[in-house]
Amino acid sequence: MLVDGRLSFDALQRRLVTAPAKARQLVAAVPASYVAFDLLAVAGVDLRTQRWTVRRGRLEQLATSFAPPLQLTPVTADLEEAREWFDVLPAAMGVEGLVVKGAATRYVGGRREWLKVNSLGVGSARSRRRGCLVPGQVAGVWWVAVRDRCRGPAVVA
């Protein structure tokens, strides 16, 4: 949801716990968009065992008919472009960070096979807690991730 030109996850969370009558008012006042990033099934076909690149390709085929409020997330395999997004989008639009997925990963329910890299100082008060920067390596690329807590050993996904 965009509030004052910035993404607001807090506004979305408020919408989800609002009474139905109030939610209808909010829909008119602050419309929401659905941004798709992965496809787990289509036309009754389970895609969870397929590599992410296959699932994403199928999603992009479907997305040719998308119109707002339905959108497709941007993706890149270019490290410099990802760094630019990470540097620019948090301040410009309130984007909280990036999601890093391996191209060959398959969807496994109940297990996280990706890494979320948060930008410091963006998001709700809860997500802006004091944290620690932790370096890690995903698919041969070094990243810096944010940990909520600064105590104990770092676990890099």
What does this structure look like?
By secondary structure, the protein is α+β, with helices and mostly antiparallel strands. It has a domain at 76-157. 29% of the residues lie in helices and 24% in strands. It is built from four helices and ten strands; from the N terminus they run E-E-H-H-E-E-E-H-E-H-E-E-E-E. The protein has helices at residues 9-16, 20-29, 52-63, 79-93; strands at residues 2-3, 6-7, 34-36, 41-42, 45-46, 70-72, 97-101, 114-118, 132-138, 141-147. The strands form five sheets. The protein has a two-stranded antiparallel ribbon with strand order 1-2. A two-stranded parallel sheet has the order 3-6. Strands 4-5 form a two-stranded antiparallel ribbon. Strand 4 and strand 5 (45-46) form a beta hairpin. The longest helix has 15 residues, at 79-93. The radius of gyration is 17 Å and the shape is globular. The two termini are 29 Å apart.
Main attributes of the structure:
alpha+beta; 4 helices; globular; disordered C terminus; DNA_ligase_ATP-dep_cent; ATP dependent DNA ligase-like protein
Question: How would the blueprint of this fold be written?
Answer:
Blueprint: E1 2-3, E2 6-7, H1 9-16, H2 20-29, E3 34-36, E4 41-42, E5 45-46, H3 52-63, E6 70-72, H4 79-93, E7 97-101, E8 114-118, E9 132-138, E10 141-147
Parallel strand pairs: 3-6
Antiparallel strand pairs: 1-2, 4-5, 7-8, 9-10
Query: What distance lies between the first and last C-alpha atoms, to the nearest angstrom?
Result: 29 Å
Estimate what percentage of residues fall within beta strands. 15-25%
| Average residue pLDDT | 75
Number of helices: 4
Residue windows where pLDDT falls under 50 for at least 5 positions: 124-157
Order of neighbouring strands in the sheet with most strands: 1-2
Structural class: alpha+beta
Q: Main sheet, how many strands, which sense, barrel?
A: 2 strands, antiparallel
Structural shape: globular
What's the total number of strands? 10
Radius of gyration: 17 Å
Order of helices and strands, N to C? EEHHEEEHEHEEEE
